[in-house]
Amino acid sequence: QVQLVESGGGLVQAGGSLRLSCAASGIIFSFYTMGWYRQAPGKQRELVATIFSGSRISYADSVKGRFTISRDNAKNTVYLQMISLKPEDTAVYYCNAHRVLGTGEHDYWGQGTQVTVSS
């Protein structure tokens, strides 16, 4: 059974920092592209950052220079370090594991962790 468990969310003032973690089980973690998404109230879920199995990284323009994604394959964990947080970063943050196999695409999601940035 695949599980992605996020942690590290909370309430922080604008300009503050948070570090999100996502611990994965039930998958060969190192083979998966890991991503962080977020969904604000009334908005669609959006991709924040991606780290590929070869450790190539990409970010949404809105978080470049403020957020850093990383992974520890030995711990089956992906992280999102967030600094200089803004009220518009307020959202539920979701961890995603993605892999394309011959049988199709495999996507797994965590339950989400709330990040609230007060002004």
Strand content: over 45%
CA-CA gap between termini? 40 Å
What is the typical, i.e. mean, pLDDT?
Answer: 96
- The number of helical segments is 0
Reported for the largest beta sheet, the result is: 7 strands, mixed
Helical fraction: under 10%
Query: Taking Cα atoms only, what radius of gyration do you get, to the nearest Å?
Result: 14 Å
Helix-strand makeup class: mainly beta
Poorly predicted spans: none
Describe the global form: globular
Reading the helices and strands in chain order gives EEEEEEEEEEE
Total beta strand runs: 11
Textual characterization of the structure:
The chain is an all-beta fold and 119 residues long. The protein has no helices and eleven strands. It is globular and about 45 Å long. 31% of the residues are buried.
Keywords, separated by commas or semicolons:
4-stranded antiparallel beta sheet; about 120 residues; mainly beta; globular; 7-stranded mixed beta sheet; single chain
Map the helices and strands:
Elements: E1 3-7, E2 10-13, E3 18-25, E4 33-39, E5 46-51, E6 57-59, E7 67-72, E8 77-82, E9 91-101, E10 104-109, E11 113-118
